[in-house]
Amino acid sequence: MVNEKLLKQAREIVKNMSLEEKIGQLVQYGKLKERQWDLVKKGQIGSFLNVSGAKNINELQREILNSDCKIPLIIGDDVIHGYKTIFPIPLALSCSFDLELIEETCAISSEEASSEGINMIFAPMIDIARDPRWGRVAEGAGEDPYLGSEIAKARVRGYQRNNWNDRPFVTACAKHYIAYGAAEGGRDYNGADVSERTIREVYLPPFKAAIEEGCGSIMCSFNDLNGEPLSGNEYMLRKVLRDELNFKGVVVSDWESVEELIDHGFAEDKKEAAYKGIKAGVDIDMNSGTYEENLYNLVKEGLVDEALIDEAAERIIALKLALNLFNISEIDEKLSEKVIRNKKYIDVALEAARKSIVLLKNDGILPLSKNIKSIALIGPLVDDKVNPLGCWACKGDPKNVVTVLEGIKSKLSEDVVINYSKGCEILEEIDGGIEEAKKVAEDSEVVVMVLGEAGNMSGENNNRAYLDIPKPQKRLLEEILKVNKRVVLVLMNGRPLTLEWEDKNLPAIVEAWHLGEQSGNAIADILFGDFNPSGKLTITFPRCVGQIPIYYNHKNTGRPTFKKYLDVEETPLYPFGYGLSYTKFEYFDLELSKEEIKLGEKIIAKAKIKNVGDREGEEIVQFYIRDISASITRPVKELKGFKKISLKPGEVKEVEFEIGEKELALLDKDYNFVVEPGTFKICIGPNSVEGLEKELKVVK
């Protein structure tokens, strides 16, 4: 989005600005009080967040254009999974493996937000996450760098589609740079102590992908990395991000993270924090006022070279040029009425919700028949309109949420008896609630229990030490099973839960996540078979918290067959890539176009997949590689591709994947991508633990 041509234009603008005005471009506030209005009138502020409504934003733009500076404002917002049309949380939607659908949800979010004056979206979150205790796992695409990179590109494409000319364009802001998902113990804001190899192999690829897709801005993270907080980490921001990845866009701090260099013990006061932030390469100081209060004096005292201020201001103004803000700063205040929550967007929200659902277990009870005589709906989330929106629901309105109760009622005739009991609250018991629920369950042909987490139990600073279904709900579930064994568990949650007991004792488990406003309709479609589940997990479900971190692409040890634990199986409960369907798929005839190739050659791996069930269904075919022996130890498996196919009963399709340098390369000891001669295992299968395998030899 930001390129050399725009930077050159911005350079000419900056030449005519005062030092105070240039520093103002580096200042962003998330509040609008008298102090901020004063900065607007002086032309000494460059951006805002948490300001909403076209009328308010137009007033701000008019005011700053009347100042001596006359440079329009960037207006940001946390549009994580929808603006007013709310889609599934990103972790849920990643389970669709549907890049076009993911892109479309982001384009819709951007369209809605821009219609009310937003031109910077603080998303996508592209942190790789291997610890489900961390609350922000809900905001990303799971544990895999390859899939995370593909989804990062899709989301940037969507947010920055900008297919309009009646308002400013929108920039994505990829976050959080970097290794934020590696926070120790899954505790938000904690430091991360990881090797440079892990940074480059695991955490950096999605950011590289976002930059290659043209992402206009990047947000640096709260955490320190190997002893240096990212808002003051010159190596990661200047050498790696700027020099190696050639990022020309804007770096934004996270909320007050420049000032928090003091809390990290990395700066003595706000003056030193401002010095270290600008020196490291943070262009915009979000909300702390650290730059506003200190950069002028730092320059005048000769401690900060004014050229650093110029460079940051040039990048910010170049982004504003890219956003067309100099040509269009105000928007039609009635525009949003034509854009927000139209039927097409709501239809996409339903499709996204359906495709995000993962069927974890089914002993034949699903899909339910619409001819049942009675059904019990039990649980605190059955008729809940708030929590299905999930964390970071932006401007979503609970009144637009379709509950599970409403969704199921719409499927069944009036002859079906629908018995409903809340049973308990999400975190508390209700006096007499279990007894009432047991009576409802006892009198019903089948029981659907909707349990899980509140929307605010995941997201920023919402971490959990235990990942069980909350105790009141777990006790409710146990009691219901005593009176009726035909229980379908529907989970609403923002992270993997530990479900070993549930897996052993229940006939069916549906992972429905926080699906947004179309939750009830999507869940009902799955339960009654109007939509065949096709989602697959993008993050591993552990058996217990003690297994964490657990992820599929781990390294072997020198003793790979030895026990990992004395008291629990070492395998996950549900692995990466896992998900069931109402039909069955058979994989066969894996072939390589060559079983030995020379360095630089490409081959095709192909396999056949047959629908051996009696229903049409979609299958996400996954392609993995393992480098058996190399100069650097490699993971036991690495996802290198996937394709989603639809098969009618009895139908067979052949799926092909190309294998070349990109798929076979590793980072050598000097962090250069190379392909080494050796033996590789090629696997095509339905998930990370099953599939067909063949060996490929690569020779000089």
Structure in words:
The protein is an alpha/beta fold. It folds into 3 domains: 294 residues, TIM Barrel; 203 residues, 3-Layer(aba) Sandwich (Rossmann fold); 115 residues, Immunoglobulins (Immunoglobulin-like), CATH 2.60.40. The protein has 21 helices and 26 strands. The strands form 6 sheets. The protein has an 8-stranded parallel beta sheet. Strands 11-16-15-14-12-13 form a 6-stranded mixed beta sheet. Helix 16 links the parallel strand 12 and strand 13. Helix 2 runs antiparallel to helix 12, helix 2 packs across helix 13 and helix 11 packs across helix 12. The radius of gyration is 26 Å and the shape is globular. The protein starts with a helix and ends with a strand. The mean pLDDT is 97.
Summarize this structure as a short list of keywords or feature phrases.
alpha/beta, TIM Barrel, Rossmann fold, Immunoglobulin-like, 8-stranded parallel sheet, 26 strands, globular
Outline of this structure?
The protein has 700 residues and is α/β, with parallel strands linked by helices. The protein folds into three domains: 4-79 and 118-335, Glycoside hydrolase, family 3, N-terminal domain (TIM Barrel, Alpha-Beta Barrel); 345-547, Rossmann fold (3-Layer(aba) Sandwich); 585-699, Immunoglobulin-like. The protein starts with a helix and ends with a strand.
